[in-house]
Records
---
Amino acid sequence: MADAVMRRNTTQAIVATSLLAIWLVLAAFPFFWTLWGSFKVEADFFSRQSWWNAISGPATMLQTGGHFTLDGYRGAWIQREFWRAALNTGIVTVCVTTISLVFGTLGGYALSRSTRRYTFWILIAALVFRAMPHITLVAGYLLPFFKLNIWGVLPTAIVVLVAINQPFTIWMLHSFFMSIPKDLDESAMVDGCTRFQAFRWVVIPVMWPGVITTGLFSFLLSYNDFAVTAMLLNQDNQTMVPKINSFLGTVQTEGTIMYAVAAVVSATVPLFMLVMFFQRQIVSGLTAGAVKG
Amino acid sequence: MRHRDFAAFIAPSLIAMFLFIVLPVGSIMVQSLFVEHDQVLVTTKNCGPFGCKEETRVDTQATEKLRREEPLGKFNGLGTYFNRAHLAIAQVGQIFSGNHGFGDIVSRLYDLPFYKALSFTLVYTFLVTPLCMVSGFLVALGVNAIPRMIKGPVIFLSLLPYIITPLLGSLILFWMINTDGVIGATLQLIFNDPELSLKASPVLTWVTLIVYGVWHMTPFAFVVFYAGLQTLPRDTIESAMIDGASRWERIRNVVIPHLLPLATFVALILMMDNFRVFEPIVGFSAAANATSLSFAIYNDLNGQTDQLFGSASATSVLTMIGVIILLLPVLVRTWRDFKGRAR
C-alpha cells in the first residue's frame, strides 16, 4: 500500500511540475523571443519559411554581415527620436509617483486614523472611482482642456494621472497605515508633537516599506498608461506607449516594423529591471489589499 | 482624529479626485446631451445662360465659427443615447417585433455597434475572470510545491505577463501570432492551411483576446493565492493527512475554503480590470471583429477630423452605469458589514 501511495505522489508531482513548466514557458517565452528577434532583420523575425530563421538569422547575416544588428534600435531611438518619448516617460513617471505618494500618504494616514462615518464613504467613493475605466474620464477632460488651453502638455497629463491614481494609492496606503499601531503616533502627540509632526517624524519612518511598495505601483500605473497619455498629449510630448502606437501606423507601410519591435523591447527593459529588484515588494503589494483589507 | 486635522490631511487627495474625477463625470453627463453642429449650408442661385440653378454648398467659414463659439454643439437631449450607435431603441424594437428566432435576434443585435461592444466586454469579463482564478490557483499550488531555491526565479518569470504594459504585451503576442510570426506560421503548418489567420475570423479573434487576457491577469491571481497558501494552518493540513485525506481531498476541503475570502477579493479586482479591456484591441488590431466599450469611446475621441464628443460621452455614461451594476453586490455587502460593525 505504501508503494501505491508513493507512486500516486510521484505521478501527481510530475503532473504538477509539468503544468508549472508549461505556464513558465507561456509566461516568459514571448519576451525572450522578442528580445532575441529585435536584433535581427524583418525577413528573419517575420520569416515565412521557417521560425528557425528568427533564431539563426540567415537574412540578418546577408543584409548586415553580422549575426546581430542594431538597425532596429538605431532607427527607433535616433531616426524616429524615441529618446524624446523615453525622456517624457521619465519626467511623467517620476513626477506622478512623487506627487501621488505625497498626497496618498497624507490621505491614507487620515483615513486610517479617523473612525468617523465619512471615512467609510470616502473609501467607497474611491473604490468606485478605481473601477471606472480611465478612458471614460478622458472623454470629460478634452473639451474643458481645449477651452483652458492646457491640452497637450506634460504637466496636464501628470496632474490627471496623479488624480486617477489617487483612489488606488489611498486604498493601498490606508491598509498599510492600518497595520501601524495607533499608540505610536498618539504617544508622540502626548509628548507634545502636533498631528503633522507625529505623522512626519514618527509614522513615516516606520512606513517606508509600504511607501516604497505603493510607489512601485504608482510608477507602474503611470508607466503603463495608454488611455490618458494617448489622448491628452500632443505629438511632441508623447510618452513611450502612445509613441509606439503611433509608430505602428507608419512602420507597416514603410517596411520598418523592426523599429517598433526595438521600441517595444526598449520600453519593456525597465519593467524587467523593476521586477528583478523589487520582486518582494511587488508581491507584498499585490497581496496587501487582500490580506489586510 | 479631529475634523480639522482630518480635513487638512485628506484635502490634497480629495481636491485632486474632485477636480479630475468628479467634475469630468459631470462634464461627460452634460456633453452626452449635446451633439455636434451640422454643417452650415447655404443655398445660392446660380444664373447662367441656360437658366437658373439652385446650388447648395457647405459654408466652411460659418461652420467653423459656429463650432468655435459653441464647442459643445447643439442640444440633443437624450437623443444620442437612443440613436443607432448607442442603445438603438428603434432598431431593437424592430428586431424583437419581427425576427426569425433566437439566432436571428443575436446576430442582428450584434450588428449594432453598442451591443457589439457590450457583448464582447461582458463575455471577456466573465470568461477571463474565472479562467484567471483557476489558472492562478493551479500555478500557486505548483509554485508552493517546488524547492525553495528556485521559487524566486519562478515567481520572477511568472510576474512578467502582469507587469508588462498591456499595449506592449499584446503587441508582443500579436507579432508572434501574425501569419508570419512564430506561432501563426506554426499553426498554419500544423493545420496545413496557408490561409489560416487568427485575425480573419471573429471567433478566433475573440479566442485570441481572451487567451491574452488570461495570460495577462493570471499572475495577479497566482500571487494572491500563493500568499494565501503561506498562511495555511499547518496542523489542519497535517491532521487531514493523518485522517487519510488524499491530495485532492485536502485541496477541496482545506485549501479552497481557506482561500475563499481571498477569492472574492481577486474576483472583484479582476472584474474591474477586465471590464475596461481596451489596449489589447488596439494592440491586436482587432477592432473589426471585437470592440469593447472602452474602445468605442477611444474610437469616437480619436477621429482625425472631428471628434465625436457627444457620442463618446454617452458611451462613457453607459459604461459607468455598467461599472456601478458590476460593483453593486460588493457595495451592498460592504455597506451591510459597515452597518453591522457600527451597531
---
Amino acid sequence: MSSSTDLAVRERAAAPRRPRAAGARATHRWRFVPWLMLLPGLAVVITFIVLPFGNTLRLAFTDATLLRPGRWVGLENFERLLGDDRFLTALLNSSLYVVCVVPFMMLLPLVLATLVSRPGRLMGFFRTSIYMPVVMSSVVVGLIWTSMLDRRGLVNETLATFGAIAEPVPFLTDRWLLLFSAMFVTVWMGLGYYMVIYLAALANIDGTLYDAAAMDGAGVVRTFLSVTMPGVRSTMALIGVLSSVAAFRVFGEVYVLTGGTGGVGGRNLTMTMLIQREGTGLQAQTGYAGAISLVMFVVLGALLVVQLWLQQREGRTR
Amino acid sequence: MTVATSDRAPAPAAPDGASRPTPRAPRRRPRRGTVARYAVLCLMVVLLAGPLLWQLSLSLKGAGDTLYERPPRLIPTDPTLTNFTDVLDRVPVLRYVGNSALVALMAVVGNIVGATLAGYALARLRFRGRGIATGVFVAALLVPIETVIVSQFLVVRSLGLTDTLLGVVLPGAVAALNVLLMRNAFAGLPDELEEAAVIDGANAWQRFLRICVPQVTGVITVVAIFAFVGAWNDFLWPLIVLSSEESYTLTVGLNRLRGTFYDDPRLIAAGTVIALIPIITFFVLLQRFFFRGLESGGIKG
C-alpha cells in the first residue's frame, strides 16, 4: 500500500536532510488520490465561480437576455450605461456609501476595542453585546430599523415626546435621509465585526508603550492618538479596504429599508440591487447586467489591489 | 454588579486573578476614565440592544396597549402571545425556519467535507498540478460574488435547480476561503506527525482521517460555524433563486412580512423575534468560537 505521497513522506522520515524528490515516482493506483480529494471543492468553485466569471466577461459585450443567447455588440452596453440614470444613481449611491461609512468603520470600532480590551467578565459581556448584530441577518436588522425609523416608529415618537420635531422625520421616504438611515444601519451592524479585528491588533501592541505614556503623564486621548493609533496603523488600513469593499457591495439593508423598491423612482438603488434587478427574473437582460457586473468588478478589483499592496508593504516592513 | 465594578480600580481583576497588572496613569485619573469608559459602553449597549428590546416589547403588546404613545412605553400593559400565534398561523414561518436550517446544514456539511479534503490535498500531498489547483482557489477567493451572480443564476437554471434548496446551497457548498483556511491549518502541522504513520504503513486516506483531521478540529469548528451563519443569513442569492413560498428560506420569507402585515408593527415584530431566537441562541452558546475565528484570520471578503 504505497503511494507517491507515502513515498515522499517515507523518504523524509528515513533521510530528513534530502530534498523532496518523490512526486514523479507515483505508483499508478494512488496518483489520483489528491485529485479525488480536490474534486468536490474544485467542482463547486469552477462551476460556480471560475466559469461564471468568464461568462460574465462574455455577456458584458453581448445583448443577451434570459431567453436569447444574444450576439456580440462590442461596447454598446457600456455606452448605454453612461446614459442610464439608474446606473449613474446606483454608482453614486454605492460610492457615497463607501465615502460615508468607511471613516466610521475605521474609527468607532477602534475606540470600542480600546474600551473593552481588558480582562473581566463585564468586558466579555460588552464585547458580546457589541458583536451580537454581526450574526443577525441584514433582513432582520432591516426590519427592526424599518420599524424604529417609521413615521410613527420609536425614533420619531421619542423625538416628538421631547418636542424636538413638529412633523415626523421622513427617514424612510426622503431620498437622502433614506440613504443615510441605511448607512447608519450598516454601521450599527458592522461595528462588532471590525472591533474584534482591532482587538487582535491591540493585543500585539507592546504594553510598555502604555507605561511610558502614563509616566509622561499622557491622558486618555493623548495615549490613544500617540500609542494606540500608530500601533494598529496597518490593521486600520486593512479595515479601511475591507469596509470599503463591503460598503460598495451593500444590498440587504437598503433593499429592506426601501421595501425592495429601491426608493421612489429607484433613486436609492445600489450597484448590487441594480444587478439583481436587471440580471435576474424572466425579463433579465443578462448582457446588460453583465456589463454592470464588470464595472462593479473593476471598482472592487481596484480596492483589492490596494489591499494586496498594503499587505505586501506591511510584510516587507516587518 | 455594574455599579460595584465600575467603582473599583481600573484593572478589574479577572476571577482567576490572572489579569496582568495595568499600570497606567496615576491613581486619580483612571477613576474618572473608568466612569467615562462605562458610560460610553453602557450607551453602546443601549444603542445595540435597545432596538431588540423594543421589538420584543412590541411583539408582546396586546390589544389593550396603545401602540403610539408619548412617551413610548417599553413594558406592555396588556402582554400577550397572540401576535406570535397570529404570525405562525398566517405565514409559514416554521417552514421557512426548516428550509433555512436545511440549507445551513447542507452548507456546513459541504464546507467541512469539501474544504477539509481539498485543504489536506493542497497542504500535505505532493502531485503535479498542485500549484494550479491552489491558484484556482485563490482566484475564486478574489471574485466578489455579486459580479458573477447573474451567471451563477444561469448555471443553476440550466441545471434545472431554480426554486430548489439545492440550488441555494450549491454555489456556496465549498467556499474557496474555507479551502484555503483548511490548507493553512494542515500546513501548520509538523511533518513528524505523519512520518511515523507512514512507517507503520498508513496510506493517504488513513493519515488524513486518523492523524491529521483530529489535529485541526478547532479550525473545522470555525469553518462550520461561519458556514452556518453565512448560509442562515444569506439573502441576495436565495432571493434570486427561490420563487415559490414553500421553498423560501427565512430571510426571503421575512422580507415579505412587511408587505403582509403593513398595518400592524406588532406582527412584524413577532416575526423578527421568531427569526432572532435561533441565531442568537446559537451565537450565545458558541460565542468563543466566533471570536477565535475572526482572530485566526478568518476574514471574509
